[in-house]
Amino acid sequence: MVIPTSILIPVLLLFAINPITEAGTHRKVIVSKLSHLDEEANALILSGWWSNQHNISNRCSWPGIQCNNAGSITEITSPPRENNDSSLASQGRSTGIDFSVFSNLVHLDLSEMGLYGFPKGLSSLNKLKFLNLSHNKLKDEPAGLFGHLTFVDLSINNLSGSIPSLIGKSVNHLDLSYNNLSGNIPEGLDSVQFYNLECNPFLNGDYHNCQSENLNNGHDKSLSTLGLVLIIVASILVSFGSIGIGICVLFARHRRRRLKSKAAKHGDLFSIWEYDGKIAFEDIVEATEDFDIRYCIGTGAYGSVYKAELPSGKTIALKKLHKTESENPSFYKSFCKEVEVLTEIRHRNIIRLYGYCLHNRCMFLVYEYLERGSLFCNLAYEIEAQELNWSKRVNIIKGTSYALAYMHHHCTPPIVHRDITTSNILLNSELDACVSDFGTARLLDTDSSNQTILVGTYGYIAPELAYTINVTTKCDVYSFGVVALETMMGHHPGEFISRLSKPSTQNLMVKDVLDSRIPLPILEKDMQDVVLVMTLALACLSSDPKSRPSMEDVANDFLASNSPIHFSFSDVSIYQLMNQEIYVIGKN
Asked: Which residues 6+ apart lie within 8 Å of 357 measured at CB?
């Protein structure tokens, strides 16, 4: 939703005088240092691969995780994928984890996770022996990754550059097949028991040396069937080297497509990624009876949203850009921006984009279908609001913070959403939150001022955008603060925010501003969490962007909150939270 600056500036100036700046200079909830074991668990949670509802103290029983006797993580294998569908890997971007925290890690398998870059901190893991990053989208050079490793699989990626000449003496299994490596084959490979370099079309050397080999100390060399076929082809085309290289490239592309789409059949949702969209388009047109109004479940900023059940049984959501909208440059740009951002994001608290279609009849995006709809609607309707008890509301806010922390701090370049509202937070059947609607998102350029036109939704826009056109991550932080208060209060907190500077408002008790449609929290954990959410929300609403916590600070505060409360919930005031006189962050 694009709002004219001429309308917003006088309105936003009313919000520029924020009482939080007058209440004191201490802005940020202080988080004490976590134990090493808790740092490991928090890193897993922030990755978005494991549910934030997992019990941190029981992390060693999480799927894909193994620990030593001291409880430190030694193995990470096949992080969980919702619905057990590996095709979701096509939406990956980065792990979101600094692996240097896992100092005892021995085994790491992140194959088919859609990674665009090597996980951070791998080179510092002296105990790591097994590394499998195959079937990803890695583009960097593989130098410096081997160290003490014995097993390395980087096959089926987009690796470029040369093979490092110094390969760790401990490596006995090395697979670099189906990449774009160039240069010479290093002599150091003679000491490797098994290596596979097939289909690196720019790698120098004859086809014999480019095939899968079991060297057995460099003497017994057995070639794969594929290797024999390519040797014959190479011999026939010896005078047409460039043609031979072309065949290898085509074969590599064919194998990649076969590996990625071998399960794709008529009506399969993911066929929209692998083919030209016609098969998926026909299924979708049939499922919605040519986008009949009966299947429309809402409208977005630049299109209508439909619910459709495909022949495979999958239920999906479609955001359809109407023809008149597709001819509007701003709507078309928003459509393309959403595709650009969401095809490179994979996080459990961010809506999953399954595909998109550019068709002469219409354009649409294909999303996962979230049964409970928007947070806004769930807060607006009595029955749904009553089902959102305090623990569920806190969990929604936590999930939103994890998504924003991932976008701001674990994506390169950082992503600013610019329209965080309760309407753009969707809930699944378990009432977990997913941030959606990335049509206004902005990829931050660290080398520029990131100037932009004013976009967003009235009531959620950061006050500094009334006098500057520079967008930063702190704009999302402000919007998050509004959403957090709205979730706790049950309605938009606009009037409450505008009156915070008045003593009468500051002296309000927290219990008096909470949603009255559900009982006040009685469990100690709920009381602690509600006070923490309110404290962080008020800190996020500072009129000075520099005084707001980062979303990573907020996410870490949620993860570290585990100490018993030492206050009477009924006596906690807004003034105390604004001055952060109530501390609910766990201490180790």
From this structure: 272, 277, 280, 281, 284, 363, 364, 366
